[in-house]
């Protein structure tokens, strides 16, 4: 006979729950178990049912439900205050939402994770929608720059317009140094809402810009702040619901940025000649509005809120004193430094080598299509073979791709296409795996702080 017992209690009572679905006879037929919430001691807020009357009714009382029964040492863990609890389910302040035991996992700090369920996957979907809007626009940098270089900002060099989009990418990651601690202390709701407002304002006003400083303010500053306010909470919130499956869950959410990077360039390429720059950007803004509403409704935290003290909401650069974290941040810095060059200049490169403007926009979409698969497939591999191992392999593939395909590509359109697909796949894992690697270096309640602080340094690349 197999019995699954869960013991919950404080210093006064220990309620023992009997899972009747796990009780069977040696012949495989289920036994009758009393359909009562039995307790080892009488409770003042529930009727006291004698066990003898239950047995007389034809039910069998398992040994664990008998008065005075105590679990063997191997079946329980001891808390610091001397109380016993079942090792079958860790009861911590972080397990506010229950999940079936077949899915729940526990980390080394005693925090429990549902590893699935409707609520957890809705958070992933909300993060996906938010990253679709925020990172989708960041991944459309090449399309915007190629258009502005030939229209509103044609009197400026590509290096000058590049500062606009450099500021955009910089603020997307730099502002996390403050956003991360606020997320850990107060949750994601306000942050995602504020970022959503800025992203929509960015796209609604972009069509009104005519001067260089207009684009710097709207794209570089407003867009960068908005993307950062969505990006950090959307990634970090997933870590509250997944531990063993964190790689694949984060990868699925991160594909939102790739889908946006495919969708937005194609939409803009079609709409620019049809309705003009202003209305084309407003159409994209409407799509972003729908996406960020979904994100605001679904992205949430499982951890209790912390007091708004300086220790909880202000940046703490002392964490760089941890060698593993410092080395990981340095590695991510150099990787990001190289990865954004092709994303920013692939369309301009194609135009400079005689490729049509229409196909140059599509080339960025092809790169982001490869990135879609590169964000979730390595997540499956990483959860099995190791997050750092997988990230190192994909970064090495980026290096080989740049050296063997892009440098000798010249005017060859087929080589440009092959390069875009392979580089997109290899670079896609950087967004999905770097936060998961960082999460291995800290407690989950500090995930936002560590992840965002790391990317603050990375933003200078």
Summarize it.
The chain is mostly helical.
Give a written overview of the molecule.
The chain has 461 residues and is mainly alpha-helical. The chain has 2 domains: 1-88, no CATH class; 114-375 and 383-458, MFS general substrate transporter like domains (Growth Hormone, Chain: A, Up-down Bundle). The chain is built from 14 helices and 6 strands. It has helices at 51-56, 118-138, 141-149, 158-174, 176-186, 189-205, 212-238, 246-298, 310-313, 323-352, 357-385, 387-406, 413-439, 447-458, and strands at 5-9, 14-18, 76-78, 84-86, 105-106, 112-113. The chain has a two-stranded antiparallel sheet with strand order 1-2. It has a two-stranded antiparallel ribbon with strand order 3-4. The protein has a two-stranded antiparallel sheet with strand order 5-6. A hairpin with a 5-residue loop joins strand 5 and strand 6. The longest helix is centred in the middle third of the chain and has 53 residues, at 246-298. The chain is globular. It starts with a strand and ends with a helix. The model is unreliable at 1-61 and 71-102 (pLDDT under 50). Belongs to the major facilitator superfamily. Monocarboxylate porter (TC 2.A.1.13) family. Residues 77-96 have a biased composition (Basic and acidic residues). The chain crosses the membrane at residues 120-142, 162-183, 190-208, 214-235, 247-268, 274-299, 325-347, 359-378, 390-409, 415-438.
């Amino acid at each position: 006979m197999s019995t699954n017992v869960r013991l919950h209690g404080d210093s006064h009572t220990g309620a023992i729950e009997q899972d009747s679905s796990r009780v069977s006879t040696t012949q495989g037929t289920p036994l009758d178990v009393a359909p009562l919430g039995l307790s080892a001691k009488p409770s003042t807020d529930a009727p006291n049912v004698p066990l003898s009357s239950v047995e007389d009714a034809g039910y069998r009382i398992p040994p664990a439900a008998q008065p005075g029964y105590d679990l063997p040492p191997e079946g329980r863990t001891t808390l610091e205050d001397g109380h016993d609890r079942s090792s079958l389910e860790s009861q911590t302040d972080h397990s506010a939402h229950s999940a079936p035991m077949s899915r729940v996992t526990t980390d080394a700090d005693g925090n429990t994770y549902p590893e699935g369920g409707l609520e957890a996957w809705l958070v992933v979907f909300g993060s996906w929608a938010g990253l679709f809007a925020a990172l989708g626009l960041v991944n459309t940098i090449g399309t915007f720059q190629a258009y502005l270089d030939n229209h509103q900002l044609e009197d400026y060099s590509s290096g000058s317009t590049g500062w606009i989009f450099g500021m955009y990418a910089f603020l997307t990651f730099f502002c996390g140094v403050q956003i991360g601690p606020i997320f850990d202390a107060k949750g994601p709701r306000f942050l995602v809402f504020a970022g959503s407002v800025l992203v929509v304002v960015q796209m609604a006003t972009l069509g009104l810009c005519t001067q260089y400083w207009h684009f710097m303010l709207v794209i570089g500053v407003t867009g960068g702040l908005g993307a950062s306010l969505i990006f950090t909470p959307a990634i970090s919130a997933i870590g509250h619901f997944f531990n063993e499956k964190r790689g694949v869950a984060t990868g699925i959410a991160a594909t939102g940025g790739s889908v946006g990077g495919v969708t937005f360039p194609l939409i803009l390429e079609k709409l620019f000649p049809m309705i003009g720059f202003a209305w084309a950007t407003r159409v994209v803004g409407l799509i972003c509005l729908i996406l960020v509403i979904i994100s605001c409704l679904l992205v949430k935290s499982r951890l209790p809120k912390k007091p708004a003290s300086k220790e909880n909401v202000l940046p703490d650069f002392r964490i760089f004193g941890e060698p593993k974290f410092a080395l990981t941040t340095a590695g991510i810095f150099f990787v990001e430094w190289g990865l954004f060059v092709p994303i920013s200049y692939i369309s301009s490169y194609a135009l400079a080598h005689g490729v049509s403007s229409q196909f140059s926009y599509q080339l960025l979409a092809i790169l982001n299509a490869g990135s879609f698969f590169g964000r979730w497939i390595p997540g499956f591999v990483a959860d099995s073979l190791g997050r750092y191992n997988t990230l190192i392999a994909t970064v090495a593939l980026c290096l080989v791709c740049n050296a063997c395909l892009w440098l000798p590509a010249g005017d060859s359109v087929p080589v440009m296409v092959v390069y875009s697909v392979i580089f997109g796949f290899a670079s896609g894992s950087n967004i999905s795996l770097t936060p998961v690697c960082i999460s291995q270096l800290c407690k989950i309640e500090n995930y936002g702080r560590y992840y965002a602080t790391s990317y603050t340094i990375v933003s200078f690349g």
